[in-house]
Amino acid sequence: MKRFTTVCRPLASVTRLGRFLLVRCGIGRHAKRPWIAKAAAPLVATLLIAAPVGRAETVTEGWRETWAVGSMAGFAPYNHTVDGTYTGLDVEILNEAAQSINVALNHRPLPWNRALLDFEMGNLDAVFQLAPSPERFKRFHMVGPLRTTRTVFMTRIDSSLQDFAELDELSDLVVGIVAGFSYEDSFDTDESILKEPSEDDFTNMRKLLLGRVDVIVGGYASLAYVARALEAEDQVRFLPTPLVEQARYIAFPRDQRGAAQAERLQKALDAMHGSGRVASIVEGYVN
């Protein structure tokens, strides 16, 4: 059986001092100056620990690989922590798809902008869940769909806004969004709409309840979940017309390794969709 091993790319961010100590002082079994090596070893260890870790190569334990996957922390019902376990609709879909190809997912819940940054810096194998856009399909290997999401607007129960037909009807309002999220191209790029960014949907809805924003936008299931969690269902309502209904994806880097990972996971997801398994998982969360 293979031993548990992790092979990382070189730590390019190790400081010049760390490199000097490693090379000149010969810390390790080839030490040329043992007394310096002994004295400097704790410092080098500190430098190595403090240095950002690059994207890990495939980790194997027996027959199984492990991929580091980032996502937004606290994004119920899709991905969130319950009693110390990371769970949710998308987590369940991805875990099952990965297991079918002998891969374990090492989930790393993060603030969304941090998750995107870590992914683009090469510290993660993949990140989910992403709304589709031409730019993202060009830059990443987009795998999916995991599922579809109906993106909607929510306002206070006493708001005079009943619905909207065109986006310009929102131009006099303050719309709460989650920083780093992509909702729909025309909405995202419309500079006439005043957008108020927040860290997550919970903060967004609190701003709505306090009157700091007029409307918030998000996935129907996630906003409904937040309203229940905040015991605010009788204080808010959805606008009838959705902004858009679109798929959600998991992204891999556009490199050789990312392409291979994406191809394997895409086949697994296709099989789950074809068998009705994804629909079954979604139904368990919606109903």
Automatic annotation (TrEMBL):
It is found in: Cell envelope. Its main location: other. The keyword Cell wall biogenesis/degradation does not apply. The keyword ATP-binding does not apply. It comes from the Bacteria. Residues 66-287 form the Solute-binding protein family 3/N-terminal domain. Keywords: Signal. GO terms for cellular component: cell envelope. Belongs to the bacterial solute-binding protein 3 family. This is Putative amino-acid-binding protein YxeM. It comes from Thalassovita mediterranea. The lineage of its organism: Bacteria, Pseudomonadati, Pseudomonadota, Alphaproteobacteria, Rhodobacterales.
